[in-house]
Each structure stands twice: as structure tokens, then as C-alpha cells.
Amino acid sequence: MKCLWTDWRKIGFFLLNLGSSIVKPIVKENQYWLLKSVVEDLKLYVDKKIELKQIDHNTLTDLVSNQIGIDCWCWDTKFWYSSISDFKTIISKDFINRLKWIAESFDCDNFASLFCSLLTVIWGYNGAGVGLGAVLDKETKEVLGYHAYNCVLVEENGNNVLYLYEPQTHFLALAQKETNMEWGIYRTDLVIFY
Predict the structure, then answer these.
(1) Taking 90 as the threshold, does the pLDDT of residue 100 lie above it?
(2) In angstroms, rounded to a whole number, what is the distance separating the alpha carbons of residues 17 and 135?
(3) What percent of the chain shows pLDDT beyond 90?
(4) pLDDT at 5 over 70
(5) Any idea which fold 53-193 has?
(6) Is 122 exposed, middle or buried (0-12, 13-18, 19+ CB in 10 A)?
(7) Which of 53, 82, 123, 129 is within CB 3.0–4.6 Å of 193 for a Cys-Cys bond?
(8) pTM: predicted TM-score of the whole model, two decimal places
């Protein structure tokens, strides 16, 4: 039987987006943006094939130690990751930054964990971990508070490197022990890859 619709993928994603719009008035704001994010991520996954590379936990642990100067916890033995350009493509359609921040309920640790989970579920990319540390004032270096964000393994110019990624703003910077993240300096104390 010949398919009458030659562009069935477009029709399918049109219907998913339509469904998202239909339920918008009856769901919470964060539920709507999560649904939109998953739909857009799945559409990008179907349209763009991302080549994943693999690294073992010992090599990842050494990279974190050498580049950032800290320990990390690896809860798996194998990790998959992509090039920096493919990672930028992945985050180009991400809607997580539109989720509403709610103190003590859906805050920085939830944003960072959700980003890791969606990256793994949709792309099979578990080379992003949750970074934990202090936020320092850019001028005085005084501790402003503590924060969770993402530490992402990518390949750049033929080398494996780590970037810090702020899922609430989409800001991305090469990871260091103290990384300038636009509004403050993130001092990373621990990264958990899972």
C-alpha cells in the first residue's frame, strides 16, 4: 500500500505541536514547556543524526581531574558524547530555559538533572553530568551561594574537553576550576555523571 502523505514526519510533528497547544490552557506552565521541549527535541533527533562517541569512566575521571582539578563520581562505566558543534545543535531547540524557576521546588538542581535526563533519553548522550559548587562574585570572589548546573563532555578540535552549561540560560563556557559564567564565577567542587 502506497502512503498518500509523502511527508508523514511533518504531519506527525504538526499533530504533536497541535496537541501541545490544545493542552496548554489545562496544564501547568512547566508541564507545557516540558512537553514542547520533548516534541522539539524529538523532531530535531529525527531530522538531524548526531554521531555519538564513547569514553570509559576512567578516562572521563582523568579528564575532569586534569581540566578542572577536582574529583567526579561516575555512576556508569561508559559514557556517550558528541562534538561541540553537534551539542550546540542539540541545545538550539531546547526549551528547558523557559521552565519557571520555583524556589525549593524546581530550582537549579532540578534544571540540571532534567537536562541530563532529557539528553540521555532522547539522544543517548550521558556524557553530561551535574556540576555542584559555589557561585563567586566576579569582583570580590566572595561566595554568593551554591549552585547546580551541567558539565558536558564534548569533542573539540579532535580533543575531549569539558564545558559548563547553564540550562536556565543556555550559557556555555569551557570548564575550569573557576569558570566565568556571565553573571558570576562558578567554582566547581564536584561533578556527578550518571
Answers:
(1) no
(2) 37
(3) 72
(4) no
(5) Beta Polymerase; domain 2 (3.30.460)
(6) middle
(7) 129
(8) 0.86
